[in-house]
Amino acid sequence: MGCGTSKDSGNVEHAVERQEGKKEEEVKGGCKEHKTFHLIHFNDVYNINEKDTEPVGGAARFITAVEKYKDLNPLVLFSGDIFAPSKLSQTMKGKQMIPFLDKVGIDVTCVGNHDFDFGVYEFTLLKDKTNFPWLLSNVWDSKTKKIFGDCTDHHIMEHQGFKIGFIGLAELEWLGVCPYIEEEDYDYEDFVKCARRWCEDLKSQGCDLIIALTHMRVKNDKHLADQVPELDMILGGHDHFEADFNIHNTLVLKSGTDFRQFSLINVEMNCPEERLQEEKSALVVDHDKKRIIGWERVEITKQFDPNPEMQEIVDGYWKEVALELEKIAGNTGVDLDARFSEIRTKETNISNLVADAMRLMLDTDVCLINSGSLRIDDIIEKGILRWKHVDTLFPMQDDTVIIRIKGEDLLEAFENSVSALPKMDGCFPCISGAKIKFDSSKPAFERILEASINGQPIQDNELYTMATKEYLYDGKDGFKSLVNAEMIADGEDCPTLDTLFINFFQLMTKRNSKWFSTKKKRVERGLEIIHNEDRHLLTEDEEGNPTDQKYFTIYPKVDGRLVNVAEE
User: Fold this and answer.
1) Where does residue 555 rank: exposed (0-12), middle (13-18), buried (19+ CB within 10 A)?
2) Which of 14, 367, 394, 510 would you label with 152, given CA atoms 20 to 30 Å apart?
3) Cα 84–87–88 angle (5° rounding)?
């Protein structure tokens, strides 16, 4: 699992040179009047359709709610994760969000990890269809030395007579598990060092207020506030809950998730002392800066009627998805047997394919998921593999995680996975990187005879990295020993299971040759998974001419990684 390159020396100097050399467009500020202005903040939105329970959310109602406050002339700020994951993003690859972004009127955003779920190049195509800056201040492309993802390192704007500076910060933890980002692709600067550097610069440019838009865990946001009190606000994403903190008179705020709420922030500047003395309810009352900052939650309930134009777009997308699902994902040279009677009792080629793909994309020693994750209950016949097959195989959006687990806990998990036999149970394993020999005629939890990872017997006290589902890590389906493991990357850092599988097919499909050629090592491993030596298999049109789209044919097989001696 990649961890990036720290930017503690020369690269930072290079960044500072660019920073100092860049001429800012003249933005006035420095208003001395006692004034109040407003901000709207939200983060981590995925499903544009509304939910069944309140607050129902939905993109169409969200727009109506934002429009309710348009008389306040608020700045609209976003803290990352919008293009994926969702059912629509499986087929539309993020473009389903562009109409919403056009209508909601975002002024500034930072980038989130799931915005890269379909690759950096795909993100830049989506970003270029928007009309506001995407910030990422502490990550660089290691080759070009430009801001990663063609983002912007900062933004300055005037609002209500005040000059406001923005930066966007990412944590290192999620960069290492983005499916299309390799460790050698980026240089990373510690977010505290980066924030200090930019606060000094933005203050020198006369900014009255400095706001960090972040996509980090709340502990990192709180650490940032503690270490960089020069920041006036830290408006964060990545966490899917609401939270607020006052740390050294810096507002740290999380604003919920999935179009179900946003934060309306009130900023009162140049307050006279008597006003500061009388304020009792605001979270931040800063006597030194003569400033009051408060906020309120706005829940997107059915009291907000859906925006008609947006609702029409949402409804139309589901019709478009039906057409997208008929498109070709690839080819299979063998039948893929996903019948419950098979995948829940024995090793199958599709179980191996899914587990291998997951281990490849998350780059771990071993992968273990339950066969109940595969829901198609049918044979996918040899021939064209369409996206509708993938959609039916993974109808649920299962969060995936990377954990570090002791050998003894892993062995107990393996015992659980074969404990229900001969019952056809969803806890039966799909594994990769490991081999298990067991005897289903023995009592439950005494069945494992041999277990190895990469050909070496599993040692009780050895630590192994493992890809699995968050559902199993929580101890569900009998996998109680997994709760003892250390979390390395959680469901917010890792793509969902369906997205991982889609990403695997896109990795093996030569859609972007420039990108593809830089991922040779991972592609070679992928070729081993699909057992295909033909690296240039093209589809043809009706006249026999090669098309622009290249598809690989997969040949997954049963290779003896699960051996039940009771059936030999």
Assistant:
1) middle
2) 510
3) 75
3-class secondary structure, 61: helix
What span, in angstroms and rounded, lies between the C-alpha atoms of 443 and 420?
10
Domains in the chain: ranges and CATH: 36-320 (3.60.21.10), 325-567 (3.90.780.10)
One-letter amino acid at 302 equals K
- Strand, helix or coil at 197? helix
Q: Per the structure block, which two tokens stand in for 426?
A: 């969803």
The 3-class secondary structure across 198-256, one letter per residue, is HHHHHHHCCCCEEEEEEECCHHHHHHHHHHCCCCCEEEEECCCCEEEEEECCEEEEEEC
**pTM, two decimal places:** 0.80
The string of pLDDT tens digits covering residues 259-310 is 999 999 999 999 999 999 999 899 999 999 999 999 999 999 999 999 999 9
What pLDDT, in 10s, does the model give residues 333-382? Answer: 899 999 999 999 999 999 999 999 999 889 999 999 999 999 998 999 99
Closest by alpha carbon to 186, among 137, 143, 220?
143
